[in-house]
Amino acid sequence: MRTKKNYFPFGYILPAFLIVFAFRLIPIVLSFIISFFKWTIHGPEQFIGFQNYLKLFQDPGFWQSLLNTFYLVIFVVPSTLILSLFFANLLNRTKKLSSLFRTTYFIPTVTSLVAISILWKLIFSPQGGLMNHMLSFFGIHGLDWLSEPRGIFTLLFGSMGIDIPKALGGPSLALFAIIIVSVWRSLGYNTIIYLAGLQNIPEVYYEAAEIDGASKWRQFFKITVPLISPTTFYVLIMTTITTFQVFSQVYLMTGPPIGGPLGTTKVIVYYIFETGFGESQNLSYASAIALVLFIIILSLTLLQKQLEKKVQY
Fold this sequence. Notes:
With 313 residues, the chain is mostly helical.
């Protein structure tokens, strides 16, 4: 008996496919093509082959922005995962006013990033900013949060009278301020995702562990962490991708010049914007950098997916 094919379900995914095709796939293909030409904002000029990609190896601005971006990812992603899981556990145990707490945590996610950046710029202000005011309670002198190019480890060990090599100085204090804002911004969304994962764990596992005399810590590491690993990998992948794409905080909180001090907050997405739409208006070189960023994010995502297959419960 011949079964009649039902094409109706494809109609549901057609709008999403068209949006992804128009605003994701086509720009990626066009960027790949443009990167092989000398192409300014006025249009194409000539075919130059791999020159833009070879130029990357000799461009200190590219490597500086890539290093700043990696600093951002290394600090933001683990901090976000740990804090989100911590707050999700607290929310999961809270019975009273739980809806109020969830809404409060989620507010930063739905608040305009422009408003958030301006607010945090005021908080980090060396003249009467809230952050320096809080440090004064611990007897710590005020810091030039968004104007300090020295690394946080250089400042930390320097206060103890220990000099460390510049390479081990870590992200600048200005970039560390951006890291704090990025962690705070992503905390609410990831906490709610973790909370949903925690509520899917059957209580019977914890009851059995209680009968066997397992402590709360042992229950957390032997039951909660393994069973919530699919959620952890989702949060890990999404946070890594969004952190690589940080732009607004740098654009609105740093400078002048933007990306300062001394380029220590200039991340890769802002460098693409500056290269393509700044003074040089070099769209082809900006496209080459964008393609490299795309490959880095894709590689990390595939690596995380492979890791997920090995450790997921």
